[in-house]
Structures are given as C-alpha cells and as structure tokens.
Amino acid sequence: MAKTLYLMRHGQTLFNLRHKVQGWCDAPLTPFGIYQAQVAGRYFKDAGITFDDAYSSTSERACDTLELVTDGKLPYKRVKGLKEWNFGTFEGESEDLNPPLPYEDFFVTYGGESQTQVRERMAATILKLMQETPGQSVLMVSHGGAMANFARAWQENWRLDSLGHMTNCGILKFIFEDNQFYLVEAIGHDFSGWEEK
Fold first, then answer.
1. How far apart are CA 27 and CA 193, in angstroms?
2. C-alpha dihedral over 12, 13, 16, 17, to 10 degrees?
3. Averaged pLDDT for residues 89-104
4. DSSP 8-state class, residue 1
5. Which PANTHER family match (predicted)?
6. What is the pTM of this model?
7. 122: which of 80, 99, 147, 150 fits an S-S bond (Cβ 3.0–4.6 Å)?
8. CA distances to 60, 82, 149 from 125, in Å
9. What are the structural domains of the chain?
10. How would you classify residue 130: left for phi > 0, otherwise alpha for psi between -120 and 50, otherwise beta?
C-alpha cells in the first residue's frame, strides 16, 4: 500500500535572517520562523491532514518547527540522517562566501560533505524510515539543501516541472510505493498575515 511523505523545511532562523551559512551548526527560530511553523500547522489542519508518524532532524530548528506544527501533541523521533548538508569550516560564516551553484565537492576540502554524500545520506535515511514505519501518513522536518538533494535523487519520478524555491516551512509531498518516491506537490504558504509584535 502506498504511503504519503510530507517533507518539510524548518522555519526561519536567526542565521537565515543574518545570511549565515547554516548546515550542522544551529540557530534558534526567529519570531517570524515561529509564525511560519504555525501557518504550516494550520495548513495541515485545514486540509484535514493527520500524521501516523513524525521524524525530525536532530537540529533544534527542525525539532522546534515540528513541535509547533503539531502543537506538541505528536511524538516524534530525532534522526541525525535528516540533518542539513555539512558545510565544514564555512559553518556560521557569511553566505557571501558560498561558491556558485552547484556546490558539488566544494565543501569536502573544508571538512564538509559533497553533494553526492548529502544526497545518498538523505536517500538512505528516508528510504529506511519509510520502509520501517507502519504509518500511512508521515511528517519529516529537515532542511532546504538536504531536501532538494533528496528530491533530485528521485527526479525521474517527479510529477512536477520544478521544485521552485525551498522556502522556510515549504513542504514537498511524496507518494512512496514499491520503494520508489514520487514527488507530487511542492507546497508553499502565504505569510503575508505576519505582523511584528
């Protein structure tokens, strides 16, 4: 039987706001990031989507996002394999120092991961979790770079033309069937109701 995976990016963090490289290092959600997670939570409620299982990257920004989305009412497992790309010594530095895309093996020299390593780590982690979960509807909270690389590992199965931009709290919806992932929807949110308190 097919399962559904909702793979979601965390809310805006202090490092996102300050344009810092943020992979395995972490920063707290901003007030706007908290609002984004609440909006995503409302999206699921309004659509009548419930989850049988939930998993998060071990990064605090992802765990906090998941807890906000589910009102802290859904038990979840923290999984290191869902972490963002490791950017080595570039962690915490200005995003201005990033090379042009695609990064490929650039960060390996600086103690980080290659694009292939990120893609293979995410693909192996998510495949194992989806194989082992008895649930039919699964939420995973991860990170923009890691999610885009996971999606590209299954690009031949996309039912979309493109991912678009992986915005904070953006969601990639996959159908998982016969050990294959089919990307069926990229879900963004309207954050225009935000008012700084």
1. 24
2. 90
3. 95
4. -
5. FRUCTOSE-2,6-BISPHOSPHATASE TIGAR (PTHR46517:SF1)
6. 0.96
7. 150
8. 19, 7, 13
9. 3-187 (3.40.50.1240)
10. alpha
Query: What residue type is 54 in one-letter code?
Result: A
Contact 87, 23 (CB under 8 A): yes
Q: Of 173, 167, 185, give the one whose Cα is nearest residue 33.
A: 167
Residue whose tokens read 């920004």: 61
Query: What does the angle CA 124 – CA 127 – CA 128 come to, to the nearest 5 degrees?
Result: 85
Rounded-to-integer distance, Cα 124 and Cα 35, Å: 32
Residue 8 tokens, joined: 């979601």
Question: Measured in whole angstroms, how far is the alpha carbon of residue 69 from the centre of its chain?
Answer: 13
3-state secondary structure of 135: coil
What pLDDT, in 10s, does the model give residues 42-72? 999 999 999 999 999 999 999 999 999 999 9
* Closest listed residue to residue 40, CA positions, set 148, 187, 192: 187
Whether 13 has a pLDDT exceeding 70, the answer reads yes
- Retrieve residue 52's tokens: 């049988």
Amino acid at 20: K
Catalytic residues: 10, 84
**Residue 99 exposed, middle or buried by CB count within 10 Å (0-12, 13-18, 19+):** exposed
Is the CA virtual torsion 80, 83, 87, 91 positive or negative? negative
Helix, strand or coil, per DSSP, at residue 79: strand
